[in-house]
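Z., the sequence and structure:
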Amino acid sequence: MTPEEVGRRVVELLAPVEATASVSGGQGYARATVDVPPASWADAVRAARDDAELGLDFLDWLSAVDELADGFDVVLHLWSVAHRHGLLLRTRVPRDAPVVASVVDLFPGAAWHERETHEMFGIDFAGHGELRPLLLPPEFEGHPLRKEFVLASRVAKPWPGAKEPGESEAGGGRRPVRPPGVPAPGEWGTTPTPAGAAGAGEGPRGGTPARPARERPARAARPSTGAVQAGSGAAPAADEAGPLGRPLPGEPPTGPPRQQPDPDAAGES
């Protein structure tokens, strides 16, 4: 059934009760919407559930809308599992006496929804029997989803801890930590460090001289390649020769001279 057909069918079932049918927005997700008086609320839910053409046997959700001086709209969404169509059923209750019949006997799953609506809007559901607090503590006063309910303003309190490393409300602080390898402000540049600002041992004016530079041990002089005597049997050092004992580029070869074959000896043999 189309949303228009669902709305007309509900109005026919509730006759002679004055019910108004319309279609909600949403294009392909539009739903038939029927407004009924509060006295016919439970009868409309029963008719939508038991009618064979409608078959609205699944309660999706129940809630309310605050319309200020006009009262509260109690809204119920039903769905047909077999026919794949839905219905938005609405009724308006006055603000000074917001009471409507409970539908827990028709849909037991409505118990949770009615408790939440009662707690958040202050609407009573006659016949429910257990409208006890559901989400709020028992000592909570008021109904948070009413539009006249004023939310408590957020109290701004100073953070008692440190706002930055080494900074807090109580004063004082701790020595800033620098990444490894980063010098102190007094160890580089031309800007002097005030006394005590960089800590002991950091900066030329911080009470003690800056950290002295480390002295590197002197490296032994590299021997010349020619110092290695030919035929002495001493292998060149690792840093004096290329891989596998070969001479480096631009250096004369070392070692015993290569023996050239004697052509006369080859002819005699």
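The radius of gyration is 47 Å. The mean pLDDT is 76.

Let me know what you think.
H.
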